[in-house]
């Protein structure tokens, strides 16, 4: 990056009697990070010039020179040959100056009826819209992987937990479908956010609109926006669309972080419920036996920065009077980092989830160990006429006996069980088995294998429809 410090270089040079302080120039510049908007900046400028020619502010020849010039600038940037200059502050002025150097006076006409204030708001929306579409694709890929895995594991029985204590048996497929539901809601939030991102601020100019006879609907159409914004002051100042994206991102990361926490627990020797393939893990430089679940750990860790960026954006906005303030330059780094982080985490998960291998026998043993069918025994007693509170008491005593004897309820004899209640008969063993327990929860949203398969089928249909 070059560092020419001359006041005449600046578009506002005419008003100033001394060059910008060298430190202030670096302090106020955004080109170091906003250069990644070059593609959307040039796309926006081409549409703007095209519109200016349509309404007669530029001639057809001037438009063509500008469009061709911008394409050359873009090619130069993509070839890595562009000389970014800190003294030109941001991506917008760097591109415009390069255009003018190339095509002369006509380049200076591009900025007619426009300000960097509406230009930058347009650039970020174009950028975010594209990134939302990429993120959406990755979310769908992850969700499809989860559905396939849930279907494969519809019959697999594991302990379901509350308070991280064994509660009731559930199917692994049902557990996975809980993650699916969260990600389906995240997708809805993302697509809803896209609606408000895809509105065009260009034409608001600095804050009040412009005196040129611009055709905003035409520019919006050229850029694929749904419509132009309604109010010029609001257009250049608010970043609520980025905050909305941040809310989506923070919730998605929170879900992925909880998912990660379970994967980390389940791969431990203590749980040993699943195996993650080696390609998603790393070893230890000192302990030869270690295989660490780095991918889920990192995803869990990265949640912190995304949550932090959401707070940055909210705080950035809260004290700003209308309309544009330089504070808004600070929106980019948090937004870019959220986009990069979410994309990386989703890619890792979409690649990893189909490769999760369950250890069904270990899950089964764990489900049996914690008296997970105790509620089923209470429900059995209620169905035989015992009041629920009494049934709870009876089963509590049976569990205490099992704890002392180190035996599950299903491993007791009929003789032993009937000591706690004489309504207990041989059919009790139908409900005390893990299979009986999960199969009995056979309603929409329940854990029965049949319900898991139906939930998967409904989700597939919804995704296609
Ligand atoms: N670099 C600025 C930003 O990111 C562009 C808009 C600057 N506008 C201004 N009047 N200084 O927000």
TrEMBL record:
Domain Argininosuccinate lyase C-terminal: 371-439
Primary localisation category: cytoplasm
Xref: Pfam families: ASL_C2 (PF14698), Lyase_1 (PF00206)
The protein's Enzyme Commission number: 4.3.2.1
Catalytic activity entry: 2-(N(omega)-L-arginino)succinate = fumarate + L-arginine
Biological process, per Gene Ontology: L-arginine biosynthetic process via ornithine
Every Fumarate lyase N-terminal domain range: 14-308
Compartments where located: Cytoplasm
Gene3D superfamilies on file: Fumarase/aspartase (C-terminal domain), Fumarase/aspartase (Central domain), Fumarase/aspartase (N-terminal domain)
Gene Ontology molecular function terms on file: argininosuccinate lyase activity
Keywords of the record: Amino-acid biosynthesis, Arginine biosynthesis, Cytoplasm, Lyase
Enzyme class: lyase
Pathway(s) per entry: Amino-acid biosynthesis; L-arginine biosynthesis; L-arginine from L-ornithine and carbamoyl phosphate: step 3/3
GO cellular component annotations of the record: cytosol
Record family assignment: In the N-terminal section; belongs to the lyase 1 family. Argininosuccinate lyase subfamily.
NCBIfam families: argH
HAMAP family linked to this entry: Arg_succ_lyase
Record protein name field: Argininosuccinate lyase
Species in which this protein is naturally found: Marinobacter nanhaiticus D15-8W
Species classification: Bacteria, Pseudomonadati, Pseudomonadota, Gammaproteobacteria, Pseudomonadales
